[in-house]
Amino acid sequence: MSFVxxxxxxxNCKIVYYGPGLGGKTTNLQYLYHRTSxxxxxxxxxLATNTERTLFFDxxxxxxxxxxxxxxxxxxxxxxxxxxxxxxxxxxxxxADGVVFVADSxxxxxxxxxxxxxxxxxxxxxQGDSLTSIPVIFQYxxxxxxxxxxxxxxxxxxxxxxxxxxxxxxxxxLGVIExxxxxxxxxxxxxxxxxxxxxxxSMTS
Length: 205
Ligand SMILES: Nc1nc2c(ncn2[C@@H]2O[C@H](COP(=O)(O)OP(=O)(O)O)[C@@H](O)[C@H]2O)c(=O)[nH]1
Ligand SMILES: [Mg+2]
Known about the structure:
This protein is α/β, with parallel strands linked by helices. The protein is built from five helices and eight strands.
């Protein structure tokens, strides 16, 4: 649940980057961290193993401008992808205002994408949400690699609810900001219908 503080005029939203291990979730946050000016970001906190794999989560707070006088802060989280970190994923997903599903486009990772998506649906359901009750968007990452599924295939197999989708090459920063804007737009629109305090969303980048 997003947190609107009328006293300090702040809106806080939690966005979770979800998806299979090694799909590029941490890479998305690292790119955003390096692209954002110092005064609009906090520290990027990564709890990683010594092989640089996300152990619990990565966290990046971003201030993304104002809406009708309210300062909007996005708190970006990633989840660990490895199968055995299920309890961590559940905790991190709790109270999410929006989800970016980062899919790995490589043909041989399709099963891992599907398994992770099923896992996301399960955890959302456990907390009384679903893929349609909160803003969820897809990012098809690693489009630079040779052995990738065609976009139409990614879309058909993963995005059967026809939610917003973005192509990306996160290692080069391609599609990363577009993805964030895509989810932010949906989150802000959802809040607009939930509260009357917010006008049409606009973002600075
Ligand atoms: N070729 C390619 N590699 C990528 C891309 N995005 C991420 N990677 C690499 O994939 C590996 C896993 O990325 P990471 O962000 O740690 O995945 P996470 O487990 O989802 O957090 C790293 O070696 C990244 O450099 C991409 O768009 N193209
Ligand atoms: Mg990671």
